[in-house]
């Protein structure tokens, strides 16, 4: 099936040339077509058949209804330098998504995405896809802030709208995102309707058309050490909510520490993902009143601590970071989950249940 000429179009920012001294807000745009894909034959061969001889970097995102393991993935967006593809999972179904699986799991195709956790979870539980080789721009932003001596408070993650507005990366306002958010609150099934409206096409394309430009900006700023952190944390965030029985043995391995960092004596500490089970009725103690307990733990440990929340899984805590900091967070969290406490009553200790 040949791709029909597209009736949709958008503008993508042109990545700066290496060594380009243009100002942060000097962004040039180029028009590209938007293709709505319902069959794998409408996708580029280099995407469907990953090869070490033609490695790709693409912008990537997913849209759906309550996007997580239990929700519904409706659209998957791919941004190439010369075109944007909106993969219609609703109409293309399992067969179309199965055709995309080798690319999404390939180490030869870099997927640039902002906050990969729930997208990865949806892909894994709905289609058996283990998302691999991502560059998460939310993680990249935090690493560059750390490089430049700025610290962030726990849970202070940059939003995609905020990242776009930053003149160091794009300097573009994204007012239409708010319009779509209002529509999603009014009708959570917004992304399920077919045919896709002009607003749906435009909103889906907007979420990926800037990603390659941002990627190039970030790559120019990140040190070799930060690039390793970016790769490792991206891999750990991808598998964060994708809990299985074999402890991720069937996932791609975590990127090892590069030899050049070892030779330079600049060896970073290994980073891991730990998943803690929370006994029934104890999550409230972990979180604390108005989140005070979990916030104090986050402030005392240099690790990311995530809770499944309403989207689930509701009975687990996920910890990502350097081994020592993860173990420290584990110890504190287990202490909060103890079912028994000791109180002093006269000269003797008395154990009571709480």
From TrEMBL:
Ranges of residues in domain K Homology: 270-338
Biased composition range(s): Polar residues: 1-10
Source organism, top-level taxon: Eukaryota
Molecular function per GO: 3'-5' exonuclease activity; RNA binding
Domain 3'-5' exonuclease span(s) in chain numbering: 34-223
Entry keyword set: RNA-binding
Statement: the UniProt record of this protein carries the keyword DNA-binding: no
Chain segments carrying region Disordered: 1-23
PANTHER family linked to this entry: EGALITARIAN, ISOFORM B
Name of protein: 3'-5' exonuclease
